[in-house]
């Protein structure tokens, strides 16, 4: 059975590019446009991994990661931050919130897929 990955990004084109890479590697994809939208979709469905941007309206990526880690069903779900941010304090904040990896945009699909393969839940 295919693993399900949630992509959280306010850019529809970025969700599409990431989705194409993930679907091409055999993953199922659920898309959300920001942290609040994503939380609404975490309704008990099994998510094996989350790929999230940091800079989004309504709820940013770090607030979203913190919120996910408060949910019993998802607190162990690995989260990869996919962002243009390169500041160490942002990386530290994301890691402290519970993010497991950091991939910078523009990303190379093989790099993202390698991180996904390493972290995706069984």
Layout of helices and strands:
Layout: E1 4-8, H1 12-24, E2 28-32, H2 35-41, E3 49-52, H3 61-69, E4 79-83, H4 88-97, E5 101-104, H5 109-119
Parallel strand pairs: 1-2, 1-3, 3-4, 4-5
Highest CATH level, the class? Alpha Beta
CATH topology: Rossmann fold
Provide the structure class. alpha/beta
Helical fraction equals 40-55%
Number of strands: 5
CATH homologous group name:
Response regulator
Radius of gyration: 13 Å
Largest sheet: 5 strands, parallel
Secondary-structure element string? EHEHEHEHEH
Query: In what order do the strands lie side by side in the largest sheet?
Result: 2-1-3-4-5
Q: Summarize model confidence as the mean pLDDT.
A: 96
Beta strand %: 15-25%
Query: How many alpha or pi helices?
Result: 5
For the terminal residues, how far apart are their CA atoms? 11 Å
Rough shape? globular
Q: In the CATH hierarchy, what is the architecture at level 2? A: 3-Layer(aba) Sandwich
- Return residue spans where pLDDT drops below 50 for at least 5 consecutive residues: none
Q: Number of domains in the coordinates? A: 1
Keywords: Phosphoprotein
InterPro entries: Bact_response_regulator, CheY-like_superfamily, Sig_transdc_resp-reg_receiver
Modified residues (4-aspartylphosphate): 53
Organism: Methylobacter tundripaludum (strain ATCC BAA-1195 / DSM 17260 / SV96)
């Amino acid at each position: 059975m295919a693993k399900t990955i949630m992509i959280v990004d306010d850019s529809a084109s970025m969700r599409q590019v990431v989705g194409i890479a993930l679907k091409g590697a055999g993953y199922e994809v659920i898309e959300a446009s920001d942290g609040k939208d994503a939380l609404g979709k975490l309704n008990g469905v099994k998510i094996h991994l989350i790929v999230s941007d940091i800079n989004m309206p309504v709820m940013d990526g770090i607030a979203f990661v913190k919120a996910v880690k408060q949910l019993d069903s998802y607190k162990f779900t690995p989260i990869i931050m996919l962002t243009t941010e390169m500041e160490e304090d942002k990386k530290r904040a994301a890691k402290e919130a519970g993010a497991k990896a950091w991939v910078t945009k523009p990303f190379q699909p093989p790099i993202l897929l390698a991180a996904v393969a390493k972290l995706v839940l069984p």
